[in-house]
Design a protein that fits this description.
Elements lengths: L22 H14 L9 E4 H9 L8 E6 L5 H18 L3 E7 L2 E6 L2 E9 L9 E7 L2 E8 L2 H14 L3 H16 L6 H7 L8 H13 L2 H15 L4 H18 L2
Parallel strand pairs: 2-5
Antiparallel strand pairs: 1-2, 3-4, 4-5, 6-7
Length: 260
């Protein structure tokens, strides 16, 4: 049966405070996620992370309907990763003829509904998980409950810090800042050694100072403050960026001092 004809009620855009998430996109994202963790090879080797992780595991208000991002547990066979993605893609298309896929490369697939690209699935082979993962039992609309392997909340925070450091797009920086704040509110703490590893700061004479300067530079950009007040704050009903920045920096200071 098609995932779009089951009568399942999915959140519409208006239900998410103006954020773009269509019923079809959400249904497809959930179905692909369930197929990945039902595949005999993929479920033993991939770890969910990123925006979808925040949505599915922690119910983040920021929509991440367009992608599913994964890391790997350890050294994996890239050909077997590709074969796994091909298996789930063919199974999905057999059940839902309107869904097609395109392999961007062996570990990055794009899914389309009636020719329109709606979901990117990427497994990062060069970003192995560095901390213990979490097995999370989840229930999604229209899908039987299943267990996923998810990144730890502290490692996700470290990856978001790394993403913020590398971003050029200011809109995506706002997303990173929101996610960092959200993770801290959910109990994440800054694992200094982990952040140093993610940012490749091992050769720095004072890596903690480098991290703090990077956070200050990104959290105090004038243009980001303007964009935050005109866009992100309106949709997500968040405090002003200055309040968010202070909370992030306070959490950093507490965590980094505790690791002395």
């Amino acid at each position: 049966m098609s995932i779009f004809s089951s009568g399942t009620k999915y959140k519409h855009q208006s239900d998410l405070k103006g954020l773009a998430r269509t019923p079809e996109n959400e249904a497809l994202q959930h179905k692909v996620l369930s197929l990945i963790f039902d595949d005999y090879y993929l479920k033993r080797n991939v770890v969910l992370k990123g925006g979808a992780f925040l949505n599915v595991v922690y119910n983040s208000p920021r929509s991440s309907k367009n992608d599913l991002d994964f890391s790997v547990l350890s050294s994996v066979d890239s050909d077997k990763i590709t074969a796994g993605l091909e298996r789930i893609s063919k199974k999905l298309s057999r059940e839902n003829p309107e869904i097609t896929h395109r392999a961007i490369n062996g570990h990055h697939f794009s899914f389309r509904i009636d020719g329109t690209e709606v979901l990117s699935v990427q497994i990062q082979l060069n970003r192995p998980i560095l901390r213990k993962t979490e097995d999370v039992w989840i229930m999604l609309p229209g899908i039987s409950s299943f267990t996923i392997t998810a990144i730890s909340i502290n490692e996700q925070l470290a990856e978001k810090i790394d993403a913020l450091n590398k971003r050029q797009d200011e809109g995506k920086k706002l997303n990173d800042i929101h996610d960092i704040y959200f993770l801290i509110k959910k109990g994440a703490t800054f694992d200094v050694a982990l952040i140093v590893a993610k940012l490749n700061l091992g050769q720095q004479s004072d890596p903690k100072k480098a991290i703090e300067e990077m956070l200050l530079n990104n959290l105090t950009e004038t243009e980001l403050t303007r964009l935050w007040d005109s866009h992100t704050r309106t949709f997500l009903q968040l405090p002003k960026l200055g309040v968010i920045s202070d909370a992030i920096l306070d959490a950093w200071i507490k965590s980094s001092n505790a690791k002395k």
